[in-house]
Amino acid sequence: MSKIRAEAVCIDFPIYNSSGRSMKNAVLRATTGGRIARDSANHTYIRSLDMLRFEIEAGERVGLIGHNGSGKTTLLRALSGVYAPTSGTLDVAGRVASLLDISLGMDPDATGYENILMRGIVMGMGPKKMLAKIDEIAEFTDLGEYLNMPLRSYSSGMQMRLAFAVSTCIEAEILLMDEWISVGDADFQDKAADRLNNLIKTTPILVIATHSPELVRKVCTRKIQLEHGRIIQDERLS
Question: Residue 29 pLDDT > 60, yes or no?
Fold first, then answer.
């Protein structure tokens, strides 16, 4: 069964060639949001996540809230496996679908069809599974013959259509999102919203970072507020 468990999770980013001048430290603090500290060897580092403890069970929709630099995106990247904890333990049980960067793994010189396969492999899908989904993805994009052309010939909106269609085609147990995704013109946005809502409904666990209280109230069953890498509020929503 899908589950996430964090126990005393910390993530530190070392800062090389940084001086101890207060002005530089103030700039770093403003741009990162993390806490600046020094270790026993007098090395400077930023603690982006600080002693996080929580559990997320199947059926929960968790909204991560907090100001820019509070640690929301770092936590999502840790859950997706991009960052490993510096200390503590982070157990993620279940197949993860990450919508943090839906264009990751796409090649501007490859065709649309080739990018469908490459993006799918980046997301952990085998070639056979992606080949079985390719017709459905192609139909959803409404790109027609453009799928036989290189991605660099697409408009930015067409590229986002393709990236969205591939990224939302997989069946996952844990869905990670950094803000709500909105792509394409009005007609495609409606279709994309339906697809995204269906994905959320059928995925056992959702973790979404957002600045929208309305979205949290509408979608989530729980909200976790971060500040300077620490959890300052963990609330169940009715």
Answer: no
